[in-house]
């Protein structure tokens, strides 16, 4: 759950200005309004969560489903690494594991509640509005449990397939207000697995809307979490990165540039009346980034990053390794390794690369980390495939 929110009072028309005094964009971004002024998303959601067809706490099957999840997704190799100070040597290969990695508690809870829903409604039709998390194996597992994705045609979700009495799961990233409204009108059973860090961001955006602030949302425009957050905003701008504005990397500079603009326009003494900045990156994402920063300080020959290729938080882990000049391989499953000394992986900017003879001969030191949507089992499977390849060489 990794994006940033800033708030400033801007003219309710559009922004398109030049650096350094104003933000310089390669294209003009229109300030958009997400909802009718007579409709209050916060009040609607509050009423929805109090309804008898809404559940976000599970169905009393936590112990049963957690046993199943642990059986399917935990790993003896990961436990061995943790028990030995996050570093262990097999033959002439030393594996170093980041001290924060893999499933965060919000992701684990979302998957667990989805499993509970299937147990609770064994004969019901169960839908999910999007991927439960950004992990292809976990999503495939839910498909095997007959939890179906709402079909999408030409970029639009086809909610007409959902019938009264069906069960609909909202994923860990949440769902946009208009989707929740549609489902409420259909009188379906809603199982909400939205991470509480996501809903906290919604509350922040909603609060600042009342102060007539424009929300500047740093994230991917079509990402489920960004779409959901924007639906709670009034006026908002979505910026993916500073490449869109011919500037620097947005994670570090977007908020500061806007803040400086507000200072120049209104004066330092008045800036707090016009600009507010919130770091809305969740603790788990920050902890994994801090852990890989510590890991890349160690001597290593290569890095293995495991996580869904559409996972923003995993892409940042890959980015950190790339910035340090470490040969880093971002895979979404262990099947990307092999046959033989071959790997298919993604770079941080999205390019898919296939490489032969990626593992050098001789003693190796390998760093390993994974994104918040990656079960331990799939990080360890990647390690096992690496070791098998080395033994085969």
TrEMBL record:
Pathway: Isoprenoid biosynthesis; isopentenyl diphosphate biosynthesis via DXP pathway; isopentenyl diphosphate from 1-deoxy-D-xylulose 5-phosphate: step 6/6; Isoprenoid biosynthesis; dimethylallyl diphosphate biosynthesis; dimethylallyl diphosphate from (2E)-4-hydroxy-3-methylbutenyl diphosphate: step 1/1. InterPro entries: LytB/IspH (IPR003451). NCBIfam families: ispH_lytB (TIGR00216). This is 4-hydroxy-3-methylbut-2-enyl diphosphate reductase. Keywords: 4Fe-4S, Iron, Iron-sulfur, Metal-binding, Oxidoreductase. Belongs to the IspH family. The lineage of its organism: Eukaryota, Viridiplantae, Streptophyta, Embryophyta, Tracheophyta. GO terms for molecular function: 4 iron, 4 sulfur cluster binding; 4-hydroxy-3-methylbut-2-enyl diphosphate reductase activity; metal ion binding. It comes from Trifolium subterraneum (Subterranean clover). Its cofactor is [4Fe-4S] cluster. CDD domains: lytB_ispH (cd13944). Coiled coil: none annotated. GO terms for biological process: dimethylallyl diphosphate biosynthetic process; isopentenyl diphosphate biosynthetic process, methylerythritol 4-phosphate pathway. Its EC number is 1.17.7.4.
